[in-house]
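Q: Convert this sequence to C-alpha cells.
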Amino acid sequence: MSNFYQAIQERRSIYVISKEPVISDEKIQEVVEFAVKHTPSSFNSQSGRAIVLLGEQHDKLWDITTDQLREVVPAENFGPTEEKMTMFKNGYGTVLFFEDQEVVKGLQEAFPLYADNFPVWSNQSSGMIQLVVWTALEQEGLGATLQHYNPLIDEKVAAEWNIPQSWKLIAQMPFGKPAAPAGEKEFSPIEERVKVYK
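A:
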C-alpha cells in the first residue's frame, strides 16, 4: 500500500485527545500553511482561510462554545454536551477553517453564468483543505475530529480573534495526542457506491 493510501485509511475521528506535545508548534503551523497553499480550489480562487489556536487560545474557544451551547441546551440535558466540550478542550489545539466570502462574491460577479455554483465550490474547496490538514496531522502522530458549532459561535469567535467580516466560519478541528483509539468503522458495500462502465 502506498504511503498516500495508508495515510487516507488511517485518518480517523479521534475524540479522546490530550495536551501532551507531539510535534512543535512550528510544525503544526507548517502543516496548516502547506494545506491552505496547495489544496486546489475552483478557478484557483484560493478562498480558504485558517486560524490555528494553541494553548490558552484553544482553551478559550471551547469555553466560548460551551457558554454558547449552555444558552440553547436545556440544563437537565447539558451533561453529555459539557463532557464533549471537555474532550475537545483537553486537546492541544484547534484549527478553525473559513472561506472568504469576498473572494466568492468577486467570482460571482466576474462569472455570472456560474454565480450559483461558487458558494458550493467554495465549500468543496474547504472540505479538501480540512481533509489535507486532518490527514497530515494524523501522519505527524496527532488525532483530530471535525466539528461544526457554527453559526452558533460565529459572532463570539469573530470578536475574540478579530476575524475579518468576509471570513465565514466553516468548521473547527480540535487535535491532540491520541489518548484512546478510534471506534470501529463500518463500510457500506463499495459496489453500491462506485460504478464502472467500460
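Strands lie at 17-18, 48-54, 93-100, 143-144, 167-178.
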